[in-house]
Amino acid sequence: MNNIERSVFAESVKAYNAKEYRKAASLFYELWKHNSDSSSAAYFGGNSFYRLGEFPMAEEFFKKAISLKKNFYHAMYAHIFIANIAIKNKNFAKAKQYLKAPISNNFESHIPHMFLGYIANQESDYALAEKYFKQSLEKDPENASIHNNLGFNYLEWNKNLDAAEKHVSFALSKNKSNPLYLHSYGFLFFVKKNFKQALVLFKKAFQILPSRTIEQDLQRAKKFLQR
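Above: the chain's sequence. Below: its structure in token form.
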């Protein structure tokens, strides 16, 4: 970097750390236009656009962070971010492709295995999802989200319900107001045919996160109680 680029980069980082992502993205883009070979500029530029929800531009920055081959940490997380964008777009094949590098390099993060577990669950391969979620837990044993995902996977699989309860309960003990954990705990009662308790938990989850999935399960519980 020349002196001007260093000054722009410093302002970019300052804005990023202050969570002024629009300003940061604009400044990182200026560096991008001048062909900056900074891995940090590419990676944090990608992060800035990602946080703004501007995923196509974020992906371009992350790809540059990978192609520069200057910073292993930036490159691995760039792969993970691109995979996450692909998952959001339901492009699971692309997500799997970008998760290969972090997995093959035994990267420290639990996220690649968690993402692969999520994809396997969405594809109804519950055994494979269980494998990946367990591998993710090996890297981060106290992560409530992974426990919740593994527990919910068992519930959808209708297998190992005791383990499902253990994992979902653990997640909820870490955050009793998390709507995803409340939904999972409600689904546990739904599977056990305790529709009254399931409805109570679905209602709590829906008040916090009025998602279509939670609403559907809430209505299903109501129908069973009306029979």
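Residues 117 and 132 are 5 Å apart (CA to CA).
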